[in-house]
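Question: Now follow the chain.
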Amino acid sequence: MKKNKTIFIVFIVLSLIAIVLWVTQSTTTFRRSLSDFKLNDSSSVTRIFIADKNNNSVTLSRKSPGKWMVNDKYLAQIQSVDLLLKTMVQLEVQQPVANAAHDNIVKDLAVNAVKVEIYQQVYRIDLFGAIRWFPHEKLTKVYYVGGATPSNQGCFMLMQNSSEPYIVCLPGFRGFVSPRYSPIEKYWRNYNIFRKSIAEISSVKVEIPSTPDYSYEVRNNGNNKFVLISLKDNTEIKNYDTLKLLNFLSGFRNLNYEALLNDMDKVRKDSILNSPPFIIITLTDTAGVSNSIKTFHKKGPVGQTNLQGLPLPYDLDRLYASVNEGQDFTIIQYFTFDKVLRPKPFFLKDGQ
Protein backbone atom coordinates (compact mmCIF):
# COMPACT_ATOMS: atom_id res chain seq x y z
CA MET A 1 0.00 0.00 0.00
CA LYS A 2 2.76 2.41 0.97
CA LYS A 3 4.62 1.56 -2.25
CA ASN A 4 1.52 2.33 -4.34
CA LYS A 5 1.10 5.67 -2.56
CA THR A 6 4.70 6.63 -3.35
CA ILE A 7 4.23 5.69 -6.99
CA PHE A 8 1.05 7.77 -7.13
CA ILE A 9 2.80 10.86 -5.68
CA VAL A 10 5.69 10.48 -8.12
CA PHE A 11 3.19 10.17 -10.96
CA ILE A 12 1.40 13.36 -9.90
CA VAL A 13 4.69 15.32 -9.63
CA LEU A 14 5.87 14.10 -13.01
CA SER A 15 2.52 14.95 -14.54
CA LEU A 16 2.71 18.49 -13.14
CA ILE A 17 6.23 18.89 -14.51
CA ALA A 18 5.09 17.63 -17.90
CA ILE A 19 2.19 20.09 -17.95
CA VAL A 20 4.44 23.02 -17.02
CA LEU A 21 6.97 22.07 -19.66
CA TRP A 22 4.24 21.82 -22.29
CA VAL A 23 2.80 25.20 -21.32
CA THR A 24 6.17 26.98 -21.23
CA GLN A 25 7.23 25.49 -24.53
CA SER A 26 3.96 26.21 -26.22
CA THR A 27 3.58 29.81 -25.09
CA THR A 28 5.92 30.93 -27.84
CA THR A 29 3.28 29.85 -30.37
CA PHE A 30 0.63 32.10 -28.80
CA ARG A 31 0.25 35.63 -30.11
CA ARG A 32 1.34 38.22 -27.55
CA SER A 33 -1.06 40.94 -26.51
CA LEU A 34 -0.78 43.88 -28.86
CA SER A 35 -0.62 46.27 -25.91
CA ASP A 36 1.55 44.28 -23.51
CA PHE A 37 4.12 47.03 -22.87
CA LYS A 38 4.05 46.91 -19.06
CA LEU A 39 6.77 44.97 -17.26
CA ASN A 40 5.57 42.88 -14.33
CA ASP A 41 8.89 42.21 -12.59
CA SER A 42 11.86 44.53 -12.95
CA SER A 43 14.04 42.47 -10.59
CA SER A 44 14.28 39.67 -13.16
CA VAL A 45 15.51 41.96 -15.95
CA THR A 46 19.04 41.00 -17.03
CA ARG A 47 19.52 43.12 -20.11
CA ILE A 48 17.93 46.00 -22.01
CA PHE A 49 18.79 46.86 -25.61
CA ILE A 50 17.77 50.23 -27.06
CA ALA A 51 18.46 51.33 -30.65
CA ASP A 52 17.30 53.97 -33.11
CA LYS A 53 17.37 54.32 -36.89
CA ASN A 54 20.57 56.42 -36.80
CA ASN A 55 22.81 53.53 -35.72
CA ASN A 56 22.80 54.65 -32.10
CA SER A 57 22.42 51.77 -29.68
CA VAL A 58 23.03 50.94 -26.06
CA THR A 59 22.92 47.70 -24.08
CA LEU A 60 22.35 47.92 -20.34
CA SER A 61 23.44 44.73 -18.57
CA ARG A 62 22.88 43.82 -14.92
CA LYS A 63 26.13 42.46 -13.45
CA SER A 64 25.09 42.28 -9.80
CA PRO A 65 22.49 43.89 -7.52
CA GLY A 66 22.82 47.64 -7.98
CA LYS A 67 25.51 47.35 -10.66
CA TRP A 68 24.79 47.79 -14.36
CA MET A 69 27.15 48.20 -17.31
CA VAL A 70 26.76 50.25 -20.47
CA ASN A 71 27.73 48.31 -23.59
CA ASP A 72 29.90 46.13 -21.33
CA LYS A 73 32.45 48.97 -21.22
CA TYR A 74 31.35 51.52 -18.63
CA LEU A 75 29.58 51.58 -15.31
CA ALA A 76 26.02 52.76 -15.72
CA GLN A 77 24.43 55.61 -13.80
CA ILE A 78 22.25 53.53 -11.50
CA GLN A 79 19.70 56.32 -10.97
CA SER A 80 18.98 56.43 -14.71
CA VAL A 81 18.65 52.65 -14.97
CA ASP A 82 16.34 52.54 -11.94
CA LEU A 83 14.19 55.28 -13.48
CA LEU A 84 13.89 53.32 -16.73
CA LEU A 85 12.93 50.11 -14.89
CA LYS A 86 10.39 52.01 -12.80
CA THR A 87 8.96 53.48 -15.99
CA MET A 88 8.65 50.06 -17.62
CA VAL A 89 6.74 48.72 -14.61
CA GLN A 90 4.34 51.67 -14.39
CA LEU A 91 3.42 52.05 -18.07
CA GLU A 92 -0.30 52.20 -18.80
CA VAL A 93 -2.11 52.07 -22.12
CA GLN A 94 -4.56 54.95 -22.55
CA GLN A 95 -6.15 53.92 -25.83
CA PRO A 96 -5.45 52.65 -29.33
CA VAL A 97 -4.50 55.24 -31.93
CA ALA A 98 -7.56 56.61 -33.70
CA ASN A 99 -8.26 55.22 -37.15
CA ALA A 100 -7.87 58.65 -38.73
CA ALA A 101 -4.29 58.98 -37.44
CA HIS A 102 -3.34 55.29 -37.66
CA ASP A 103 -1.44 55.29 -40.96
CA ASN A 104 0.53 58.46 -40.21
CA ILE A 105 1.54 57.23 -36.75
CA VAL A 106 2.67 53.85 -38.11
CA LYS A 107 4.76 55.57 -40.80
CA ASP A 108 6.34 57.88 -38.21
CA LEU A 109 7.14 54.95 -35.93
CA ALA A 110 8.78 53.11 -38.82
CA VAL A 111 11.15 56.04 -39.36
CA ASN A 112 11.69 57.61 -35.94
CA ALA A 113 10.86 55.04 -33.26
CA VAL A 114 13.35 53.58 -30.81
CA LYS A 115 13.45 49.80 -30.60
CA VAL A 116 13.44 48.28 -27.09
CA GLU A 117 14.33 44.69 -26.26
CA ILE A 118 13.91 43.41 -22.70
CA TYR A 119 15.63 40.24 -21.50
CA GLN A 120 14.70 38.53 -18.24
CA GLN A 121 15.76 35.55 -16.22
CA VAL A 122 13.05 32.93 -16.50
CA TYR A 123 12.80 29.26 -15.51
CA ARG A 124 12.07 26.30 -17.71
CA ILE A 125 10.18 24.82 -14.77
CA ASP A 126 8.30 27.25 -12.53
CA LEU A 127 5.65 25.76 -10.26
CA PHE A 128 3.77 28.81 -9.00
CA GLY A 129 7.03 30.40 -7.87
CA ALA A 130 7.58 27.70 -5.26
CA ILE A 131 9.73 25.41 -7.38
CA ARG A 132 12.00 27.02 -9.96
CA TRP A 133 14.46 24.99 -11.99
CA PHE A 134 16.74 25.63 -14.95
CA PRO A 135 17.07 29.45 -15.04
CA HIS A 136 18.05 31.06 -18.34
CA GLU A 137 17.92 34.44 -20.06
CA LYS A 138 15.04 34.99 -22.43
CA LEU A 139 13.90 37.83 -24.69
CA THR A 140 10.49 38.63 -23.20
CA LYS A 141 9.41 41.91 -24.79
CA VAL A 142 10.16 43.83 -27.97
CA TYR A 143 8.40 47.09 -28.73
CA TYR A 144 8.93 50.47 -30.38
CA VAL A 145 8.75 53.84 -28.63
CA GLY A 146 7.72 56.82 -30.70
CA GLY A 147 7.25 60.51 -30.14
CA ALA A 148 4.85 62.46 -27.96
CA THR A 149 1.16 62.84 -28.50
CA PRO A 150 -0.16 66.33 -29.41
CA SER A 151 -1.06 66.86 -25.73
CA ASN A 152 2.46 65.89 -24.61
CA GLN A 153 0.85 63.68 -21.96
CA GLY A 154 1.76 60.36 -23.56
CA CYS A 155 3.69 58.75 -26.37
CA PHE A 156 3.04 56.27 -29.15
CA MET A 157 4.18 52.66 -28.77
CA LEU A 158 3.96 49.60 -30.97
CA MET A 159 4.62 45.97 -30.15
CA GLN A 160 6.85 44.02 -32.52
CA ASN A 161 4.98 42.18 -35.30
CA SER A 162 1.93 44.35 -34.70
CA SER A 163 0.34 47.09 -36.79
CA GLU A 164 -1.75 48.54 -33.97
CA PRO A 165 -0.04 51.46 -32.18
CA TYR A 166 -1.22 52.65 -28.79
CA ILE A 167 -1.02 55.80 -26.73
CA VAL A 168 0.90 54.97 -23.56
CA CYS A 169 1.37 57.14 -20.48
CA LEU A 170 2.81 57.10 -16.97
CA PRO A 171 0.12 57.63 -14.33
CA GLY A 172 0.69 60.77 -12.28
CA PHE A 173 3.44 62.01 -14.61
CA ARG A 174 2.80 65.15 -16.64
CA GLY A 175 4.79 64.55 -19.80
CA PHE A 176 5.90 61.71 -22.02
CA VAL A 177 8.43 58.95 -21.38
CA SER A 178 10.19 58.77 -24.74
CA PRO A 179 13.37 60.56 -23.50
CA ARG A 180 13.86 57.84 -20.87
CA TYR A 181 14.50 55.34 -23.67
CA SER A 182 17.64 57.03 -24.95
CA PRO A 183 19.90 54.99 -27.28
CA ILE A 184 22.82 57.38 -26.72
CA GLU A 185 25.66 55.73 -24.78
CA LYS A 186 26.97 58.80 -22.97
CA TYR A 187 23.63 59.55 -21.32
CA TRP A 188 23.73 56.24 -19.45
CA ARG A 189 27.31 56.34 -18.25
CA ASN A 190 28.31 56.89 -14.64
CA TYR A 191 29.87 60.37 -14.32
CA ASN A 192 32.17 59.33 -11.51
CA ILE A 193 35.92 60.03 -11.70
CA PHE A 194 37.03 59.33 -8.13
CA ARG A 195 35.13 57.34 -5.50
CA LYS A 196 37.54 56.37 -2.74
CA SER A 197 37.42 56.69 1.02
CA ILE A 198 40.55 57.69 2.92
CA ALA A 199 41.13 54.08 3.95
CA GLU A 200 41.11 53.01 0.29
CA ILE A 201 43.75 55.56 -0.78
CA SER A 202 47.40 54.54 -0.96
CA SER A 203 48.71 57.80 -2.43
CA VAL A 204 47.68 60.97 -4.23
CA LYS A 205 50.09 62.82 -6.47
CA VAL A 206 49.30 66.41 -7.45
CA GLU A 207 51.42 67.95 -10.22
CA ILE A 208 51.23 71.64 -11.10
CA PRO A 209 53.40 72.14 -14.23
CA SER A 210 53.29 75.96 -14.13
CA THR A 211 54.68 76.03 -10.57
CA PRO A 212 56.64 72.79 -9.91
CA ASP A 213 57.47 73.91 -6.39
CA TYR A 214 53.76 73.58 -5.54
CA SER A 215 53.62 69.91 -6.62
CA TYR A 216 53.43 67.20 -3.96
CA GLU A 217 52.41 63.67 -3.07
CA VAL A 218 50.46 62.38 -0.09
CA ARG A 219 51.24 58.83 1.00
CA ASN A 220 49.14 56.75 3.35
CA ASN A 221 51.37 54.68 5.62
CA GLY A 222 48.40 53.11 7.41
CA ASN A 223 47.12 53.55 10.95
CA ASN A 224 46.05 57.11 10.05
CA LYS A 225 49.66 58.09 9.37
CA PHE A 226 50.27 60.21 6.28
CA VAL A 227 53.41 61.57 4.67
CA LEU A 228 53.53 64.76 2.61
CA ILE A 229 56.30 64.78 0.00
CA SER A 230 57.51 67.75 -2.04
CA LEU A 231 57.92 66.50 -5.61
CA LYS A 232 60.43 69.15 -6.60
CA ASP A 233 63.18 67.75 -4.35
CA ASN A 234 61.51 64.55 -3.09
CA THR A 235 61.76 65.65 0.52
CA GLU A 236 59.30 64.97 3.32
CA ILE A 237 57.43 67.92 4.80
CA LYS A 238 57.05 67.48 8.53
CA ASN A 239 55.13 70.55 9.63
CA TYR A 240 51.84 70.32 7.76
CA ASP A 241 48.24 70.94 8.81
CA THR A 242 46.80 67.49 9.54
CA LEU A 243 43.16 68.59 9.37
CA LYS A 244 43.62 70.22 5.96
CA LEU A 245 45.31 67.07 4.67
CA LEU A 246 42.48 64.85 5.91
CA ASN A 247 39.88 67.16 4.35
CA PHE A 248 41.82 66.98 1.09
CA LEU A 249 41.85 63.16 1.10
CA SER A 250 38.17 62.94 2.05
CA GLY A 251 37.42 65.03 -1.03
CA PHE A 252 37.95 61.98 -3.23
CA ARG A 253 34.96 60.17 -1.76
CA ASN A 254 32.68 61.10 -4.67
CA LEU A 255 33.88 63.30 -7.54
CA ASN A 256 31.97 63.46 -10.81
CA TYR A 257 32.40 65.31 -14.07
CA GLU A 258 29.59 67.57 -15.27
CA ALA A 259 29.40 66.57 -18.93
CA LEU A 260 31.11 64.36 -21.49
CA LEU A 261 32.64 66.29 -24.39
CA ASN A 262 33.96 63.49 -26.61
CA ASP A 263 31.88 64.87 -29.48
CA MET A 264 33.62 68.25 -29.43
CA ASP A 265 35.17 69.39 -32.69
CA LYS A 266 38.45 67.46 -33.03
CA VAL A 267 40.60 70.49 -33.90
CA ARG A 268 39.34 72.42 -30.91
CA LYS A 269 39.67 69.46 -28.56
CA ASP A 270 43.21 68.66 -29.73
CA SER A 271 44.17 72.30 -29.23
CA ILE A 272 43.04 72.11 -25.60
CA LEU A 273 44.70 68.74 -24.95
CA ASN A 274 48.00 69.97 -26.42
CA SER A 275 48.06 73.05 -24.22
CA PRO A 276 49.91 73.03 -20.87
CA PRO A 277 47.79 71.26 -18.25
CA PHE A 278 46.66 73.17 -15.19
CA ILE A 279 46.77 70.40 -12.54
CA ILE A 280 47.33 66.64 -12.88
CA ILE A 281 46.05 64.37 -10.11
CA THR A 282 46.92 60.68 -9.85
CA LEU A 283 45.27 58.59 -7.17
CA THR A 284 46.50 55.07 -6.41
CA ASP A 285 44.29 52.89 -4.26
CA THR A 286 45.34 50.19 -1.80
CA ALA A 287 44.86 47.54 -4.50
CA GLY A 288 47.55 49.24 -6.59
CA VAL A 289 45.16 50.61 -9.22
CA SER A 290 45.91 54.16 -10.39
CA ASN A 291 43.48 56.70 -11.80
CA SER A 292 44.46 60.08 -13.22
CA ILE A 293 42.78 63.30 -14.21
CA LYS A 294 44.50 65.99 -16.26
CA THR A 295 42.82 69.41 -16.08
CA PHE A 296 43.02 72.35 -18.49
CA HIS A 297 41.90 75.96 -18.20
CA LYS A 298 38.70 76.88 -20.00
CA LYS A 299 38.51 80.22 -21.76
CA GLY A 300 36.46 82.72 -19.80
CA PRO A 301 32.96 83.62 -21.02
CA VAL A 302 32.57 86.84 -22.93
CA GLY A 303 31.88 89.68 -20.49
CA GLN A 304 33.42 88.01 -17.43
CA THR A 305 35.70 90.53 -15.69
CA ASN A 306 37.66 90.94 -12.48
CA LEU A 307 37.13 93.61 -9.82
CA GLN A 308 39.04 96.10 -11.93
CA GLY A 309 36.76 95.46 -14.92
CA LEU A 310 39.43 93.65 -16.92
CA PRO A 311 38.50 90.53 -18.92
CA LEU A 312 39.38 87.28 -17.14
CA PRO A 313 41.54 84.89 -19.17
CA TYR A 314 39.94 81.77 -17.71
CA ASP A 315 36.52 80.57 -16.67
CA LEU A 316 36.11 80.85 -12.90
CA ASP A 317 33.49 78.11 -12.71
CA ARG A 318 34.68 75.26 -14.94
CA LEU A 319 37.70 73.36 -16.23
CA TYR A 320 38.26 70.87 -19.03
CA ALA A 321 39.49 67.47 -17.90
CA SER A 322 40.94 64.40 -19.59
CA VAL A 323 39.94 61.25 -17.65
CA ASN A 324 39.90 57.45 -17.96
CA GLU A 325 43.47 57.26 -19.24
CA GLY A 326 42.77 59.93 -21.85
CA GLN A 327 39.78 58.09 -23.34
CA ASP A 328 37.25 60.71 -22.26
CA PHE A 329 37.22 64.48 -22.50
CA THR A 330 34.97 66.15 -19.96
CA ILE A 331 34.09 69.37 -18.23
CA ILE A 332 34.25 69.68 -14.44
CA GLN A 333 33.17 72.32 -11.93
CA TYR A 334 35.46 74.14 -9.52
CA PHE A 335 32.62 73.93 -7.00
CA THR A 336 32.99 70.14 -7.03
CA PHE A 337 36.75 69.77 -7.46
CA ASP A 338 38.15 72.79 -5.66
CA LYS A 339 38.69 70.74 -2.48
CA VAL A 340 41.26 68.52 -4.25
CA LEU A 341 42.87 71.19 -6.47
CA ARG A 342 45.14 72.32 -3.65
CA PRO A 343 48.77 73.50 -4.06
CA LYS A 344 51.43 72.44 -1.58
CA PRO A 345 51.49 75.76 0.37
CA PHE A 346 47.84 75.18 1.31
CA PHE A 347 48.92 72.44 3.75
CA LEU A 348 51.92 74.21 5.27
CA LYS A 349 51.77 75.74 8.69
CA ASP A 350 52.96 79.29 9.25
CA GLY A 351 56.69 79.67 9.21
CA GLN A 352 57.55 76.74 6.96
In short: Residues 33-187 form one domain. The chain has a mean pLDDT of 88. The longest helix spans residues 2-26.
